[in-house]
Amino acid sequence: MPKTIIEPFRIKAVEPIRLTTAEQRRELLEAARLNVFKLHADDVLIDLLTDSGTGAMSANQWAAMMQGDESYAGAQSFFRLEKVIQRITGYPFFIPTHQGRAAERILFSVATKPGDVIPNNTHFDTTRANLEYGQAVAVDLVIPEGLQPQNTHPFKGNIDLERVEDLLKRDADRIPFGMITITNNSGGGQPVSLENIRAYSELLKRYDKPLILDVCRFAENAMFIKLREPGMENRTIESIVHEMFSYADGCTMSAKKDGMVNIGGFIALRDERWVEAARNLLILTEGFPTYGGLAGRDLDALAVGLEEVMQEDYLRYRLRTAEYLGQRLQETGIAIVQPPGGHAVYLDAKDFLPHLPKEQYPAWSLCNALYLQGGIRGVEIGSVMFGKRLDDGTETYHSMELVRLAFPRRVYTQSHFDYVAEVLCELKQNAKSVRGVRITKQTRFLRHFTAECDWA
Ligand SMILES: *Cc1c(COP(=O)(O)O)cnc(C)c1O
């Protein structure tokens, strides 16, 4: 069998992308106050800002959209999607929402109270924010390997069961349920093993606590299990997915990831306990329970997307993309977080730009340099995102300075990634000339979205 893993699709509709000159990019970036979030998307050649809602739908999904039933109540689209979700998850109750954070907000509103404690491998930022909004405490308990960038543990997203048990012994009364995020987005898109989910579920059961999965990338996680977990190599993705869900009692999902759609999300639950309250809240803030803030056509596109995402040739190509770019970068001596996750490659900016002190935001500067060099947009995961300027004018800094290159699903081909590797390689040779930045204007919260900068 040939070794080249190809994109398992051909292209039916194209969207032109435009290469600007270096001079234009300098002007555009300076007009954007050295913040790539402020660029117009059509001034970006390869956009690796996020894999969320940026994927391409298939011809079958577009066809399904024409079947969308836009009835306010009881639309056929709802029942078609419900059937798919019931089959995949094994859970009878399904509640559509407009995206993942709405699912979180609704579930947490009905299932947590102030002072509750929720363990997770790593809470995604909207998950943490929605829990904290309800005055619950979000506790991150990923295994120690998950925090070591160069560690090549195959399941760096696993939760540390000993620490979960300590928490349960100490605080069981305050824990309404446990969560686990598959794959672990905030931990580099690292997978969780089936063994870890099963053991976590058994541990929670001993304390009579349900398990809720954050399943934004359930199919990518299942493919990692097939490729890396002993004894799993001959199983179908669907059977691995089924087993993952069988250990849990419910899930929240952002369909903008492995739902293969541009908008959507849902809650699915095994028993009735939270369903009625969640549906009542849904009516208040999202819409009637059979559409939940989405159009009927969105539900139909998702029903098809959930089937397509579990196709093995797609997943093989998907995970290979990150691995391929990771290998190309390593060959040129560019340090990345190991091993590459499912949806992104993370560059280590401290290693790339050793001449820049943390006060000049190396990862932010690398992001800017990547745009200037080749029109590529990544996102800073460093001290602009996680640091803070305190009232006395001093700064706090993040432990790591990373640039995330996230891959939209089915959008770019291998030559696009060859181009990304080439641009990074050129940039590496001129790394010394990359200039740092200082922040000239910022907000108190989530400053990275709107910060304005100048050259340091
Ligand atoms: C994206 C994401 C969410 C939130 O979903 P949105 O659709 O962006 O609201 C929650 N958890 C994880 C792991 C995610 O990746």
Describe the structure.
This protein is α/β, with parallel strands linked by helices and 456 residues long. It folds into two domains: 22-51 and 311-455, Aspartate Aminotransferase, domain 1 (Alpha-Beta Complex); 59-308, Aspartate Aminotransferase, domain 2 (3-Layer(aba) Sandwich). The protein contains 16 helices and 16 strands. The chain has a five-stranded mixed β-sheet, with helices on both faces. A hairpin with a 5-residue loop joins strand 12 and strand 13. The chain is globular and about 60 Å long. Pyridoxal-5'-phosphate is lined by residues 52, 99-101, 124, 126-127, 181, 185, 214, 216, 254, 256-257, 265. Pyridoxal-5'-phosphate (PLP) binds at residues 52, 99-101, 124, 126-127, 181, 185, 214, 216, 254, 256-257, 265.
Brief descriptors of the model:
456 residues, alpha/beta, Aspartate Aminotransferase, domain 1, Aspartate Aminotransferase, domain 2, 2 domains, five-stranded mixed beta sheet, three-stranded antiparallel beta sheet, 16 helices, binds pyridoxal-5'-phosphate
Architecture blueprint of SSEs:
Elements: H1 22-31, E1 46-47, H2 59-66, H3 76-89, E2 93-97, H4 100-111, E3 117-120, H5 125-133, E4 137-140, H6 161-171, E5 178-181, H7 194-206, E6 211-214, H8 218-228, H9 237-246, E7 250-254, E8 265-269, H10 275-285, H11 296-308, H12 312-331, E9 344-348, H13 349-352, H14 362-374, E10 376-377, E11 379-381, H15 383-386, E12 388-389, E13 395-396, E14 402-406, H16 414-429, E15 437-441, E16 452-455
Parallel strand pairs: 1-10, 3-4, 5-6, 6-7
Antiparallel strand pairs: 2-8, 7-8, 9-14, 11-14, 12-13, 15-16
Helix pairs in contact: 1-14, 2-11, 3-11, 4-5, 4-10, 6-7, 8-9, 8-12, 12-16, 14-16
Bound molecules: pyridoxal-5'-phosphate.
